[in-house]
Design goal:
Strand content: 35-45%
CATH superfamily of the largest domain: TolB, C-terminal domain
Order of helices and strands: EEEEEEEEEEEEEEEEEEEEEEEE
CATH architecture of the largest domain: 6 Propeller
Helix content: under 10%
Shape: globular
Largest sheet: 4 strands, antiparallel
Structural class: mainly beta
Distance between the termini: 44 Å
Number of strands: 24
Length: 344
């Protein structure tokens, strides 16, 4: 006999005859059909078995629109955190490929904004350390690269996650080399915990990042830091609240150029081990609305994470270990769905 295991909820809904199946029950159900032995999908999120509002184990592969970014961007190892410059000619990401010290920062280049990525290079020992360096984000002018690293604590564990801190490096022009690596300024930003995946807005006054610092809503939350001087220290840090964060891991914020739509990944119960989510607001002075799962066009029963948005707002980049990967974790891109940008 062949049975598939479903979980959780408080109502039920099933569409048979297709791959898309959603179940809302307060217990585990085994749907039985004639076939082989009973098994459970290994890609399914195992974080919670009873409190999910929506547990979906299967996705409709015909609705998936993402394409793998291929070689030389992807390798037989893991690639993470893709981030393109505004002109579309450079992409920064992190990788564990051969030649990396741990997880290193890399830069990909191409001749035209719609061309193939032809050159991929390790950013070298002036930027990378012997420890993990990851989560790159480039400012709109292409001159400031922000990332997180374990170099400050040499990979020391804090009991929850390895210590990670936010760093930056700058260049005078797009053709110039990046300079000295320094800590992102602000005593509220740098803690003894894992502060990661930061991005700085175009005006230089706001930074979004992830942290597992005490006092959050979940095991890792998204925060916003602000400063009056775009070249000074960040002086205020605020948790983005329950519309964005959950009691699970919420991380890797990516914001559109107009500042009204925020993408991130979450390990809350959904399609896979982590899913891509979106939240929006009608104006920069308004509150962020409830986060929405990007659904079957973006998420699978594997792990989707590390979203970023192209400067023209037409492409969403992310990493995934879904079927079709070159290595352990690959970088993918997909066209932006206009529905994601609408506040409901």
């Amino acid at each position: 006999m062949d049975c598939k295991l479903y979980r959780v909820g408080d109502a039920k809904q099933m569409q048979s005859g297709g791959r898309f199946i959603a179940i809302h029950l307060s217990l585990l159900l085994c749907v039985v059909a004639i076939g082989t032995s009973c098994s459970k999908n290994p890609g399914t999120n195992q974080n919670e078995l009873v409190d999910a509002k929506e547990i979906i184990h299967e996705t409709d592969s015909s609705k998936l629109t993402a394409t793998n970014m291929g070689v030389p961007v992807n390798s037989s190892e893991g690639e993470f955190n893709p981030e393109m410059t505004s002109n579309g000619l450079e992409m920064f990401f992190s990788s564990e490929r051969e030649g990396s010290q741990d997880r290193d920062l890399y830069r990909a280049r191409r001749e035209t904004p719609d061309g193939e990525w032809t050159v991929v290079e390790n950013m070298g020992p002036k930027i990378n350390s012997p420890h993990l360096d990851s989560g790159p984000s480039i400012t709109a002018d292409g001159k400031t690269l922000v990332f997180h690293s374990e170099r400050l604590f040499n990979g020391e564990e804090d009991g929850i996650q390895t210590h990670r801190d936010l760093f930056y490096t700058q260049r005078a022009s797009l053709d110039a080399p990046f300079g000295k690596v320094e800590l992102v300024p602000g005593k509220e930003v740098i803690t003894g915990y894992a502060d990661t995946a930061a991005l700085i807005t175009d005006d230089g006054k706001t930074m979004y990042f992830s942290s597992n610092r005490p006092g959050g809503i979940g095991s890792k939350d998204i925060y916003m830091a602000t400063r009056e001087d775009p070249n000074g220290p960040f002086t205020a840090v605020q948790n983005m609240g329950p519309n964005v964060n959950s009691k699970w891991v919420d991380s890797n914020p990516a914001i559109t150029e107009n500042g009204l739509t925020l993408f991130f990944h979450s390990k809350r119960p959904g399609f896979g081990r982590s899913d891509l989510y979106v939240t929006c607001r009608p104006s920069k002075d308004a509150s962020w609305g409830p986060a929405r799962n990007l659904g079957v066009s973006a998420n699978t029963d594997y792990a989707e994470a590390n979203p970023s948005v192209s400067a023209n707002g037409k492409i969403l980049l992310f990493r995934s270990d879904r079927e079709g990967t070159v290595g352990k974790q690959d970088l993918w891109q997909m066209p932006m769905d206009p529905a994601w940008l609408k506040c409901e």
